[in-house]
């Protein structure tokens, strides 16, 4: 197996990222994405790329996209101005799970957050994904808070 490569996403990656996101949804959950050619996705990628506190990452192995995540740096006031790293939309292609790629992806992102001066990394995971929760726990993440969302 070739070593994974991590890079910032480009417009040509949108369909693969959306497919990974939908494949990672809990069993029975409806997909949340629509046509990858919708200009809204390219506009969203452009907003992410233009923001120095955000990176949308793809992980490739053998020239194929096998994982993705977004890193957001959140400057804070509390804890003496602690910067937090937020990892979002973390997904590995289902047929590639169990091969250490998720650990490589999250480990790489932790290194990026550390290099950016983060003192804490946080993430959310759907309550209906117990396998993902065990995975994050195996990497040292603790379920210390209850998350809330409000769809607008």
From TrEMBL:
Entry keyword annotation includes RNA-binding: no
Coiled-coil boundaries: none
A Pfam match: Acetyltransf_1
UniProt domain N-acetyltransferase: residue ranges: 4-152
GO molecular function ontology, one term from the record: acyltransferase activity, transferring groups other than amino-acyl groups
Thylakoid as UniProt keyword: no
PANTHER family: AMINOALKYLPHOSPHONATE N-ACETYLTRANSFERASE-RELATED-RELATED
Designated name of the protein: Acetyltransferase
Organism: Aquisalinus flavus
